[in-house]
Q: What sequence folds into this?
């Protein structure tokens, strides 16, 4: 059991018989009245997102989530196919279960797939990925002296902000948890 006061991002709990992942939380201590926890929770099966408040002492059972490393193979337009690297079984997943990871994954990349009671509900890319820039504005001489950023489009279609000295064709490392540029590789 976990109390609402112990909620953290990414934690999975059972609320009203359904499994929810904590997307965001905030401990609020108003000047008058009791403290409460304001949360944004996402249903792991249906994908519904709710905003709810809880008393910090409310307790909920922690949901057991299985994680398995699998390799992303390809997409046929509707389904995304992943392969178990131990048994070589393929697992097709719908877009809604993969969409959060899509900006950061390429074919043949290993990802973590989360399961609840044997059913896959989410794909997690590695914390750091290396992707190639397919489109960005050219930098100008002297731009490296200022700490400016410009938009860049990655090979996966993701748009991130990069320093001005980065050019089209450069390979960069991205932190997938924040979506931020880390370094040029």
A:
């Amino acid at each position: 059991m976990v109390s609402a006061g112990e909620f953290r991002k990414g934690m999975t709990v059972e609320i009203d018989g359904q499994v929810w992942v904590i997307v965001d939380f905030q401990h609020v201590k108003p000047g008058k009245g009791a403290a409460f926890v304001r949360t944004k929770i996402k249903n792991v099966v249906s994908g519904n997102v709710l905003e709810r408040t809880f008393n910090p002492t409310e307790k909920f059972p922690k949901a057991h989530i299985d994680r398995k490393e699998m390799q992303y193979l390809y997409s046929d337009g509707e389904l995304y196919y992943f392969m178990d690297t131990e048994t070589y079984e393929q697992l097709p997943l719908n877009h809604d279960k993969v969409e959060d990871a899509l900006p950061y994954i390429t074919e043949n990349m290993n990802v973590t797939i989360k399961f609840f009671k044997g059913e896959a509900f989410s794909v997690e890319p590695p914390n750091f990925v290396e992707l190639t820039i397919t489109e960005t504005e050219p930098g100008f001489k002297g731009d490296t002296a200022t700490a400016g950023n410009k938009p860049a489009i990655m090979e996966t279609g993701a748009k991130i902000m990069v320093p001005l000295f980065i050019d089209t064709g450069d390979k960069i490392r991205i932190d997938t948890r924040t979506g931020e540029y880390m370094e040029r590789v």
